[in-house]
Amino acid sequence: MSETIILAAVWFAQIALALAMCLCAWRMIAGPRAQDRILALDALYLCAMLQLLAFGIRTGSTVYFEAALIIGMLGFVATVSLAKFLMRGEVIE
Amino acid sequence: MRALLPYPLLALMLAIMWLLLAGVSPGQVVIAAGVATGASHALSALGEASPAIRRWLAIPELAGVVFYDIVVSNLEVAGILLGVRRMRSAGFVTVPLTTRSPSALAILSIIVTSTPGTAWIDYDAARNEVLVHVFDLDDEAHWRHLITERYERRLMEIFQ
Amino acid sequence: MSVHLADVPLWAAILAAFFLALGAGLTLLGTIGLVRLPTFYQRIHAPTLGTSWGAGGMVMASMIVFTAGSGRLVLHEVLIGLFVTVTTPVTLMMLGRSALYRDRSESNPHVPPFGRADATAEAPDGE
Question: What is the pLDDT at residue B1?
């Protein structure tokens, strides 16, 4: 019984997150300016991280947790360096 | 104490993080203590002074206020996005601040930005003013009051 | 370490399902805002829905399932929640500053100019 409930909720969550990723991708393609694309990329990273957490719940294994942590860290570094690039036009000063 | 552990709070957080990732066992506790001490000594080479916390009791109070505000503004922004509430015009608000403590400013910026509905955009160190973008701007004075009275006053209690 | 979902008690399953739906729903709502809102400075508020209670809900659900399924306290997901709450404001602040800098240097309307940053309400429907 509880397995059915959790699997149904995970199914809903994964579809919602997949939709969210599509919307982020749309905003990333549509722009209109560079800062919009970077903001969308940041949100896309977040959705991918949450998607991995949902995978972890579905399979009942903690392997996905580490992957989610790494995606979160990469997303942070990527967005900060892109925002820095936007401001100054160079990443390394 | 200061010579042994330059940043006690940071060392504690690092040790907790290590134990969460590696699992709690006597051996891991020893490694966590070693890593935390070593890392905080490495950071002290940067020469940044550890902020002195004056009133520990104000920390859970501030955390409670922020948690409540995040829940409320989540509901508000979600309501606007769903079209339940009508969207008023968004806009910028300049908020004059009193504190100049870097730690208080850093935490204030994190609070303001992580609350949906307000975003910390720019800080002017010369005027000690911050430019905040508000999603649902009805009354500018209300938002200035919120940031200075609700968050900044409590942060000043903690740090000064 | 792995957990069988059938071992999770019913009350924990219902609680986890609630948090899963809440977290994923709020994240989706945030990205809907990202698509629908007309100006960049409004859009910058949208992802914070996902990073505050969206991520929080998913992390809570994961903690509940693993704690109830394995019978001992599993808290390492807290790290993801903490990490997201601390890093998102930093990225959003940097993005906001660089966007403001670009808008000011192109002297776009609807943003406060250099120097005295007066409060200027921006038009809700200008792209």
Answer: 56
